[in-house]
Design a protein that fits this description.
Elements lengths: L2 H4 L1 H26 L6 E2 L7 H13 L5 E2 L1
Parallel strand pairs: 1-2
Helix pairs in contact: 2-3
Length: about 70
């Protein structure tokens, strides 16, 4: 087993990141399906975790949005 499976802190962090990925997938899918345009702006990007999660979903969504942080 790796630390990710045994360390409760790392499990919690991974669970949070998985939740962010799901949120951004749903959000960008909804924006694209409904024809809503616009860029993604993030303030207070400590560590870049949510920006990274948004970027990963954005490049997979096919939307022509810019990202600002």
């Amino acid at each position: 087993m790796t630390d990710e499976h045994t360390n409760p802190i790392l499990r919690g962090v991974q669970r949070q990141l998985d939740g962010c990925a799901t949120f951004f997938f749903d959000a960008f899918t909804s924006l694209n399906v409904n024809g809503i345009s616009g860029d993604y702006v993030e303030f207070g990007s400590w560590g870049g975790n949510t920006l990274n999660a948004a970027y990963r979903q954005l490049i997979g969504s096919g939307g022509g949005r810019h990202m600002w942080a």
